[in-house]
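Final report, section 2: Outcomes. Of the targets proposed, Inositol transporter 4 is the one most frequently requested by collaborating groups, and we therefore present its record in full.
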Amino acid sequence: MGTAPWIVNSEIYPLRYRGVGGGIVVVSNWMSNLIVSETFLTLTEALGFSGTFLLFAGFSFLGLVTIFFLVPGTKGLQFEEVEKMLEKGFKPNICCCNKPATDEEDSK
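The predicted structure is given below as tokens.
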């Protein structure tokens, strides 16, 4: 997933969980790197170079779509604001036609 785990990791966790969350992200990122490294030669023999890179591009595209819809935007927010947003419970806006929530709706 490239830089996404590192960027999200630095912004999304509350301070008290940042160490544990960071550890989990690092392990899962290196495990995915290991999976790619271990399967690359076998896949190139079975699918060829083009097929292998298309397969990995497909996984990357799925990851991009998942990140776009499920990871909250934290641009311009302080750490405390991000923590407050996540404590209230972040609900991803999966349908693009949903209107954004207003402050009045948040207080209900």
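The chain has four helices and no strands.
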